[in-house]
Structures are given as structure tokens and as C-alpha cells.
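Protocol step 4 of 5: obtain the predicted structure for the target chain.
Materials: sequence only (see below). No template structures provided, no constraints applied. The aim of this step is simply to have a reference model before the mutagenesis design in step 5. Sequence pasted as it appears in the construct record:
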Amino acid sequence: MDRSGSHVAETALKSLARHVQDTEAYNTIEETLRMMCEVIVVNLVDLMCNCYGSHVLRSLLCLCKGVPLDSSEFHGANASKTLAKRLNFKASQLDGNDSQHLQHGFPNLLKFLVSGMLNCTREDIETLQVDQYNSLVLQTALKLLAGDDQELLQIIPILIGFNKQNLVEGEFIDVTIAGETFESMKETAFSHLMEVILEVAPESLYNEMFTKLFKNSLFELSSHHCGNFVVQALISHARTKYQMELIWEELGLKFGDLLGMGRSGVIASLIAACQRLQTHEYKCCQALAAAVGSKNETSKFIVPRILFLDSYFSYEDKSSWNWSGGFKMQVMGSLILQAIFKFQSEWIQPYILSITSMEAEHVLEAAKDAGGARVIEAFLASDASTKQKRRLVVKLRGHFGELAMHLSGSFTVERCFNAGSLSIKEAIASELLDLRTELSKTKQGPHLLRKLDIDRYATKPDQWRSKQASKQSAYNEFYVAFGSSESPTKNKFLCDASISEPEELNTRKEIDSSLTSTSKVDDTSAEKKMKMKRKRDVGSEDAVGSKKVMENAVKFFLSSGSIDKKRRGASKHKLKI
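Step 4 output (C-alpha cells):
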């Protein structure tokens, strides 16, 4: 529990972790860890509640499980990653604990440590629930046990204050302690612990917590500066449409109130959950639009007001609020709009009208802002019509070169190129050609110049135009042949990359490898579609013709390339709620 001593202990654990794969040393390491654990459990409460001791204990838990000691997924809270998972931008790695990274563990020692922690917790639950460092240890333990339903069903009720032995389904939570637990969720340490509990809880226990702890109290908890994060976790891990119906009954008419209180994270989580469970999607779009405007106003104000949520809701006379330079665009507002543009175009027409009605200077300002740029990209990847997308793209004409010089702006330029008409594509190529030397010296420049084939445009402009025209023709043929049978999100295929949070690729070689892999998947998918197409077609000649259309379309799509999947290290900006 001494600062220097904790560093020594951490170093010793890291040294053991480096040799844990050595089968000859495994038994020796296990015996060493066993002696450490036996000493630790004697004074476990003090260790769990100590700044330095809790850090060592978390590392020991990770080593016993067999996960890397420096894993941010288990060793500490990462607000950006948590938010990304809640908004469907990133899959959770807790299920199965990302088994591809597991090393040899010591499951019996892990069980021994957790059992010791639970015995301590039973005796002094009220104090330990609100201790910051104890909360961090328990969060790590729960994450490491994710997927082990039998263990979690015994542990979680104890952590929320229910000490009854031999629990059975339907009786995990005692309603007599529900009020105390509810109030504890307004404490910082316990609210963080409760977020993890909701994330890892087995379905039967989640359902019981939903009914006994949260039902009819969601708005009250959402209004609290700590409690609202618990509600976000509850919504993000909702299992059924029925649960979303109950959540909607309590929060669906409160969008304006929640945004006014600065609880935009609750709204974002609700939109993402509706999208994931495919329920209340249209109602979400309507409720959000109503929250930032009135029936007497046109929809053109919707997107600007969401981009500047704090500025708009802090404005006394909201009807007279106008876009004013100098304010930073809201990260959460950007994330909400990115989620909205994933919906079907029929449901988001007010948002489409709003973003396409923005003044050219405002579109440029948004494109220069990391959050605003992602909203533009989300719109260009949406189900909106090509005509609507080009109405926005043309407003950036004359500024594509300027945007390309910025790391995040280069992705927007590439999106605009893919969505633009032939004349817009040439305008973009011309602007980038003028800055080719400067662009080639930037991190993102060489990739963008290659993707847009600027060298060919410089030396053989007619050939470049012909190639772009051929690509456009192939896309059109693809729509004619297959557009009617595609899902409502068909436009996303031709708008290149998905806007979900991608993995980082650090070299061009990795980028090319990724594109090659995508090619194999798309080709396989195309083959299956063609087999089904053959069965439906009456004439064999028509079937052969359709196959050529598909092959050409896929070929041209892949040659133009999807937006580089290394992305969104570009904005490096910390997501906050």
C-alpha cells in the first residue's frame, strides 16, 4: 500500500506474466501467486480501498484470469470505448473476455480472490459501495467474470446489498433494499460499479433489476449528474423490445427536458438501443426533432441546433438562436446525428432537409470541425438520395484542397468525391492537384492522392474522366439490376465504408491487405446473389448479362476503394458525455 512498494509489486507481477506461457515454470508461478493471495486476503479491505493497493490487486486479478496486465478493457475505465460500445460503434470484448488474447490463467486463484472480496463486502457493504478504489477493483473482477453466469448470479446481488444465501431466479433482488440501492446509484463510485453490473449481468438478473430497481424511476435517475450514466448503461444493455417499450413510456416524451439538463448521453443511448433492437426508430426521430424546435418552425434549424446543443439550450430566447462562429460543436450532438443518419431516409427527412439547407459557410465550418465532419460523412453514407447528397457536396466547392490538408477533413473530401457528380469529382481532383506537393508531405495526403488517382488526372485527364464515367455507369447498372431487391440501407454499399468505429491500420500495406480481404468477401457475396438470380431469371442470356453487371459493379466499387479503415484516430478527441 506504499507508493514505491506498489511499483515493486507491479514489476514482480509483470515479470511473472512474461513467463506464464512457459509450461515448465507454470507450477512455480502458480505456487508463488498462491502465497501472495493468501497474504493479501488477510487484509483485503484495506488493500481494496487503497489508491496503490487497488492498482496492484487489479493487476493480480488480470494475471489470474490470463489477460494482459496493461489491458485498458479490464484494468481501468475508458470513457471513449464505453461510449462507443453504447452507441453501437464498437462491439464489446467482455463476452468471452476476448479469448484470442487470453494467456494461461489461474482460475482457482481468481475464484479464491473473488471469494475473499465478497466476504469482506458482505460485512461492510454500505461503506465499500461508495469507495472509489474498491469500486475499481470490483469493476475489474466483474469484467473478468463476464460470461460466467453462475458466479455472477451469486456475486452481483451481494454487491447491490442483498446478502441472502442460496439465491434462486426471481428472488435475486429484495424489494426492501431497492430504495437504498437506488439512492446509492447517485454516488459516483457506486454508479460506475452499477454500469459494469448492468453490462455483465446474466439476462435473468438484468430483467429482475430492471423491474425491481429501475421501473418507474428512470426519469428521476436520468436527471441526476451521476445516476444518468447508470440509465445509459441500462438502456444500452436492454435485451428485448418490451423493455424498450417500458423505457420509452418513461423517457420518450422527455427528450427536451433531458437535453435541457445536459443529459444528451441518455438520448444518444436511447436512439442507439432503438436502432439495435429495431423498435421505436421513427418515434425517436420525431421526438428529437420536436425537442430542438417547435411546430411553427421549419426543420432547417434541426441539425445546427443539435451540433451546438449546449449553446442552444443555454440560450434564453431559443427561437432567436442563430449559428454563431467561435463555439465548439458538441461531441454528443455529433454522435446523435451520426446515429440518426443510420435510419431509413423516410424517417429522417426533416434532418436531411436541415443539413442540405445549411449555408455554404456553415457547411464549411462543420467540415473543419472533427465532430461536424463526421456528421457530414454520416449523411453522405446514409440512405438519402444522390440528389440530396450532391446538394450538400456542391457547397464545399472551392474548399476541398483546404479540407484535404487536415487529417479529419481528408476523409470528408473522399466521401464527397464518392458522392459527387462527374463535374464535382473533377473539381475535387483539380483542387487536390494544385496542392499535390504539399499534400504528399502530410500523413493522409499520399493515401488520398492515390485513392482519387490524382497522378492519372495530372498526366492523362481524358483517361481519368473516362474511368470515372465508367465507374458511374457501372453503379447505375448495378442499381438497375439489383437496386429494387436490396435492403433500405442499400445506398451504404455504394457510399463505401461503414461509419462504425474502425480498427486502426498503421501502414499502407495493411490498408491494401484490408481492401483485398474485403474484395474476397464481396466477391463471395456476389456469387451467391448471382446463383439466386439465375434461378429466378427465365432466360439464361439475361442471367449471364446480370452476372457481368454485378462483377463490373463490384470491380469498380473496389477499385475506387472504401474510405481508409484506419480512421478515427484523426480527431483524437476525448469523448465526454
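Step 4 remarks: The mean pLDDT is 81. The radius of gyration is 27 Å.
Proceed to step 5.
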